[in-house]
Structures are given as structure tokens and as C-alpha cells.
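Researcher: Go.
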Amino acid sequence: MKILYYNWTPLEKKKEGGGVAVYMRNLLDYLQRSDLGLDVTFMSSGYYYDGGDRPYIRKEKDMYGASVFSIVNSPIIAPQGFPESVFAKCSSGGGIVNVFKQFLDETGPYDIIHFNSFEGISAKVLELKECFSQTKFIHSMHDYGILCPKVQFWTLSGTNCVTDKDHPLCKDCVKVNQRQPMFLNKYFRPSSPSSKKTHNLKRVVLKWTRSFAKRSYWFYNRESHSEATYSEFRKTNVDCINEYADAELVVSRRVGEIAQMYGINKEKIRLSYIGTKFADSQLGHCRSNGGDFTLLYMGYMLKAKGFYSYLSALETLDESVAANIRLKFASRISDKSAYRRVLALKRKFKGVTFHNGYTHADFPKIMDGVSLGVVPPLWEDNLPQVALEMIANGIPVLASGNGGAHELNAHPMFKFDGLEDLKGKIAAISKDRSYLEDYWNFAVRLTTMEEHVGQLLDIYKS
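Model: Structure:
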């Protein structure tokens, strides 16, 4: 079986691309070590720019047993979130469809083309199904990039676009998107894996130019047109998937619900929990059911992640409950006032421990003695990695009803909706530790990479 995997992030850029890039490296690494007889190719696009205007295909160094290629000078820069003109090119194909077809003609035919994003290219490449009818075209919905220009369905004013039905999509975000000068973004992009262009300098220049844009007509800034362009962008993506994709893989049931809500044909949708290396070593039991009751928050100090809502819940939790609870935080200090609020909780709780940032090597120390993890996103977080990490380390998770984290357990006590529900469930679980044991009777076993690849192959062959 000959497979082409696509994602906008080059494999060698290990600090770029977030969880999807990590997933791609893990998947290709597993396929390399397996004995499945697959012929694997990987392509990226929208990252490398050499100063020219003509997009072209370049062979890169093979990695993880895969032949690696990149599209240089793509007219659609990645990651997503740039001015209207870029999204207009996404809707038209922007010439990238011809480049992609040239690549398939020269290196194919492929049995499977599996897109893990359309950033850096366009969903219009799915129309090539008409030219390659024997090839299966598959897309994985790891985030909401095909539906939301800023990927998260989370506005600058802190609104969940999915749950706030009266909120016009894109209304708050178009202004900022227009203030990103494309020529500077491309100029400071590396031209190749060995390029020495300075990203720190890029951030400084972009910060200055965005500030300047607020007082200048230098930059293209037609907000009403942008909203129309974004609506067309969304419609193009949905139409292409419904017309040409053989399958739309979603990483949680909630993501599948949102996909249907915005027009993806339910007959195309397949649930595919991604494989994680943490599943291979998951403990499958509660680490700490005796001693102090300790809550753990891991992640960023961001409103979308639910950090501030969780902090408010702790600040207003009944003092008689709080007096018997210890708190742990593992988060880089990006908001000093919020950090001071965390430290102030020492007056109310039995103890507060704060880890300023962390790596996987810090997990044993951070998770030691933890009774319950709290994953409280306000945005529709597709399937938070932090939930997988805590569960794999034997820690039950109390998760928000937003996104897919709550799907990892079917016990009603471990899903909350709103601030009061969160406080009530923290109080109930801290008073009755038997819930912590019950958690594992309702837990969904994490998907190993072996199981995930098996599911993918079933979809590929079906």
C-alpha cells in the first residue's frame, strides 16, 4: 500500500505545529518500526519561502522511513490565521491544486492520500479525486481549521463560537487577521531546513508592524469583505469534503457533532481516537486514594483553557471544603497577577504547589500524590493531550463538557458544566473518595499507536 501523508509542518521542525505535528512524527515513527509493508511519503507546505513567487516541489531528507517533500513558496502560508487574501486563495485553489497534481503525477499513483490539515494548501486539492479515482482521499479533523479561520472557534473577546449561537462567526477576529503583512511573514520564513533566518527578529518586527497598522491605511483592511471571504472559505471546505473525500476522521465524538453542525455529511464521518505513546504505559488505576486530597491543573494560563474559570471556582469554593484540599499547578507563569491569585489560595487551602513550566521528565514529581486532575477548557478542545497524560499516569480527570476530554470517562461525576457544577463535584469527590475508584470502572481505555494504526488500515482498506 502506497500512502501519502500531508501536514503543513515540516517533520524536522519539532518546535512547530503543536499536537498534530507530534502525532505525525509518532505515527511515522511507528510505521517505520512496524512490519506492515507500507510505502510512505510525507509532504508539507506553507512553511518554506525562498523569496521567489513560483511555488515548487522540493525533495527533503528522508525521515522516519518516509520519503519527504515540501512545497516551497506556497501561495497559502501556514499556519492558519492570515489576511483575507490568503483565505480567498484557499477558496479558489490559488494555483496550489496544479502544483499538487504535478506531484501526484510524478510520484504516484497513491492508494491513500491522508490530509492531517489543509493549512498551506487548499481543500480544493480534494477535487483531484476526479483525476485519481482509484485513490482514497481522507482528511482528519484534528482541529477546526476547515471551519474557523483562527482554528479554535474561540473569539478574541473570549467567546465559544459553537455554544454562543447568536454570535456572528468571525466578527471579532477579522480586524487582527488583517494586520499581518504577508511580505514580512514570508521574508522571515526559513527557505530550507538549514536556513538561519531569525524568528525572534520576526516576532519583534511583526509586533511593531501590527501596532503601526492600527494607525495606518498601509495594510489591506476591509472587514466586511473579510467576513464574506471567511464564509466562502468555510463553504468551500465543507463542499469539497462532502463531494470528494472518502472519509472525514474526527478525534472525538464532540468533534464529529460540531462537524455535522457546520455541514459535514454524517455518512463521511468516522470516529478515530488518535494513538498516544502514553497508552502503552497507562497504569489503569488510581495512584493516590489515601492521604491528602490533591487537585492538579496542567496547562497554559489561558481563558480558553479554562484556567481563569478554574481559579475563580477555587477562590469561591466553600472554605470548609477547601481546608481539606491541596492544590498543584503546572503552568508557565505568563500572567503575574494570576500567579499572585494562585499564591493567595494558600490562606484557604491546605497547601499550594506551583511548577513554573514543565516537561515530560517532570511528570513523576508533578503527579506524585495527585488525587484528581482538572481539565476545564471553555473552547471545544478536540482531545486535550494533558487529559491523556494524566489518565495514563493513573490520575482520574474531572473534565469540562466542552471538547472531547469528558469522553474518556462515562461516569457522570467526572464531567462538569459551568462554575457551580465544577465546585459541587470537587466538593463531592473530595468528601467521598470512593468516586476515585469508581472512575476506572467507567474509563475508556486509551488508544495505543498499534490500535490506532490498525483502525487506520481498516479505514484505508474498507
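Model: Confidence is low (pLDDT under 50) at residues 214-222.
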